[in-house]
Amino acid sequence: MTTDKKGEKLQHKELQGMGNKIIVDGKEQVVGAGGKFGGVHLAMSDASVQEKNRAMLEAMFEKERRRRERERKLMEKRESDEK
Question: What pLDDT was estimated at residue 64?
Answer without folding.
Answer: 96
